Structures
1.
Amino acid sequence: MLSHLLIKNYALIEHLEMDPDTSLNTITGETGAGKSIMLGAIGLLMGNRADSKALYTPTEKCVIEGFFDVSGYVIENLFEEENLDYDSTCVVRREISPSGKSRAFVNDTPVTLDILRRVTSQLMDIHSQHDSILLGSNDYQLQIVDTYAQNDALLRQYRTDYRTFRLKQEAYEHLLNETALMKKEFDYNHFLYEELQKLTLQTDEQEQLEQELTILENAEDIKERLQLSSDYLDNAEQSVVVYLKNVVNNLNYVTRLTDRFSQIRDRAQSSLIELRDLANEISAEQENIETNDARVDDIRERLNLIYNLQTKHAVKTVAELLTIQAELGKKVSKILNSDEELAQAKAANEAAEKQLMESARALATSRLAVIPDIEKQVDSSLADLGMPNASLKINVETGKPTHNGIDTISFLFSANKGVKPQQLKNVASGGEFSRLMMTIKYILASKRSLPTIIFDEIDTGVSGEIAIKMGNMMREMATSHQIIAITHLHQIAAQGKAHYYVYKDNSGNKTVSRVKKLSFNERVQEIAQMIGGNNPSASVLKNAKELLSPKAMS
């Protein structure tokens, strides 16, 4: 439960601290005094969106901090799942910088807003006037039934199975669509694949074939020039080798006379050997050059096939053609093996659907089992709140699986005898909505372990004896929950064990919202003013004191 609340630099609040009672706390004050501002600040602790425009002093950061006593509440696993330190006192803090940047902390550990919402949803439940509108929503009505049935475990299991089913279903449908599309293209892809495969392409063959074709097409010219080159180098009558041989002989002679010319002689000798080897190699190459018209035709045909395929596939190399061939092979193979793959995906989808429906039926059974009790308790509580002829009927329809199960819940309501129950939005007035919502919160309180429940003017549209009974219901709920009720009714304000008064302080240069815990005498004055206006009579003051005395002594 909330043991301490700090609000600093938020809207009209410069600095506010309060230590709510563990039982029923009532908060009163004039319209616009700042009660809704307090609720907005608490909403930030619950993970609501932050806005730098809400800063009291725009140049300073806003801090909202809540200390919660969570001893006795089994939520340790939640902290473990989110890697948060657990202690019997949980400190939740939200900061908003002047730039608008927002940060959240749980026990001094920075957390995302999703984690903040998950943690604080186990610490507080805020009922605002917006919830009365939500009451007309089928999803909200379903949530009420699940809360009463305590379906948390069943709902978690169902949603896990639902996510698994959706993944398997999407995978199967994607494979079906992909296979259908590929089957349309199969014949063409198969033709292209076989066309490439039959060619048995080699990575470097195009360059080799083009080089060989060039040689064959110019064989006579190449052969003639190689022969001339060979003759220039080594001809029996007149050639470079003959002249170089004479050079070597002359150098051998002078070297015998002196060693001075031995290095020159050796270089000439090496050159003679190299030129003879070069001449032999040129001669061998010349002998290997042959004209082969049949081979030329074969190469040209092969290259034309390669060129045509490159044009068809808009590529320039054999390597790219081989890549395309591999990709086509995968597509063709996938189609040839698609029946087996589809069968496996279908089986996985059907197994996931079977598991999902088992979880859905378990959830539906649990919901159906509690509906008579909800109807009975709501009708009984509404009778206590001055609506003896009111009737709530909960209609259940079964449909396709959704995130929340296979059930659609509809609350049908009638406030008057002999009138058939209809959709809430069509038949319930503001006061009837308030009483119905109070009743629902009352019966759900025993089903939830929430430490703190906050009511924001849940008494809208009611007065008199009904307001007293609503106050009694809150007081009863406060025996097992911490209740904080923002109210305009003296009947409910008087029920609080602690009473806080919110007011505007205009004594400074800027209006500030403040809150103070009222003493007994201050409560008498406040309750009296709520009954009779700013100048209550003696009888009104006496009435206020009588309303408070039993509560003040408890």
Note: The chain has a mean pLDDT of 87.
2.
Amino acid sequence: MGGKGQPNMAEDLNWAVGGEAGDGIDSTGKIFAQALSRAGRHVFTSKDFASRIRGGYTAYKIRTSVDRVQSVVDRLDILVALTQRTIDENLDELHEGSAIIYDGERSWEADIPDEMTAVDVPLKSLAEDAGGAIMRNIVALGAACEITGFDVEYLDEALEKRFGGKGSKIVENNKEAARLGQEYVQENYDLDHLGYNVETTDNDYVLLNGNEAIGMGALAAGCRFYAGYPITPATSIMEYLTGRIEDYGGHVVQAEDELSAINMALGAARGGARSMTATSGAGIDLMTETFGLVAQSETPLVIADVQRSGPSTGMPTKQEQGDLNMALYGGHGEVPRFVVAPTSITECFWKTVEAFNLAEKYQTPVFLVSDLAMSVTEQTFPPEAFDMDEVEIDRGKLVDEDEIDEWLDAQGRFRTHAVTDDGVSPRAVPGTTEGAHMSTGLEHDELGRRTEDEDERVQQVDKRNRKVETAKAEEEWDYREFGDEDADNLIISWGSNEGALVEALDYLEDEGIDVRVISVPYIFPRPDLSEEIEAADKTVVVECNATGQFADVIEHDVLTRVKRINKYTGVRFKADELADEINDKFTEEVPA
């Protein structure tokens, strides 16, 4: 079903550059993605990189179209191959109309299938003519512009943005390198038979990835303190905030480890700042120790977990959705928490804002669960997708001097853990008149003093749990829906699989399969899907892990078995590939 047939190349083009880590693959891909977005084209990127600074296969793929694109597909039209392995790794995605750009002057002999078009360009030599061999990738971009009919002037704009800070000479050298690549292909090849003609538009798009959207959402939400320890793939959240949060009076601290990071963030939150930390992999395990203190002390804190393949060190640069059980159940004792999982890059922004509001409104830790695929994927959006005028800040029961009297006991002491009907106690930041208080990870009474009194223990546990019940009643724990709402076939997904599923609907429609897709951004609390599943003939849960962690949760909720599509290769779902698997699930015979 998926296939690799050629669509209208003016509308849909798939490009990639591949080589070894250290070859500048990432910067090359970003430059081309920026050029395409500046030309008013939609862009969706995907990365494959090794967990090392040098060596190991790495690739940057771009799908671009005049229409919105939300997934990679199993097809490559233009491949810039800096190594033979790049060709070998992508053979399954190449097709008869594919063009492969390579440097025949290098020591390796490119083994390119006869049905594909080999475009031998002396990348290094032309780069040296422009001022330095380091620009060979820019030469390749110029060659790609000529093959695809893409105006190289858009590439000029991206080069100015990329290298403008290094001086005009560097910018001009790179522009010259691109021109040399374009002219070489123009003079030595006739590629009209390929039919590529990349159309441009006047549309204005924002290009950003999921981690950038989380960072932007944090700033919009009023986050003024971030502490973190570098770890793939969460680090770029810290990199985004550094140099920006200071403009709003905030601070970023690079801690010595994950334990320090979450404790610093906890301290800032106790001081009244909207605070956040982010991590991945084994880092979330380490943070779990402090997670209980965050909940017991009723401190509002946002913890972003950008998932990667595990367990242990696992595959640090590969995709997975394997931390769901940790987010739902991690920590000793019974810990109330919220778990929010953005389903798209725009949702990374909006759910981050919501996470900060939930944390403060209910004085509860919030897990913001993303994953590697969404963190590094760059996608285009209209600017209005991030309308700052729509951002609302809710600081909950943060009291000041005018409100604090009703929360004092007979001796005038502030009841920071007061037992309330909704489970949410008042909160006073340090310096609030008459708001002095203590709080501890030990069980405590209303004043925060440690206690082992049985009645007070029960009151405090019930109060903390009551916050979740209040939130269930007050907030919209809804889902996003796509496809045919009356279809008998139901697909349920969470997190970053949404885009691939939405595009898979087109493939399924061509096969005459009507599908209803429910994409769930709230893992706890979560929407009750009992009616939706009961109305469906077949239900399939799609996720990137081996055991079906969300499927288990759904089955527990509705007491009904569901079918499962699980991918745990370390690579995200592709739309056409996913359509094939869904088709198999919905058409397979039920055993007698």
Note: The chain has a mean pLDDT of 94.
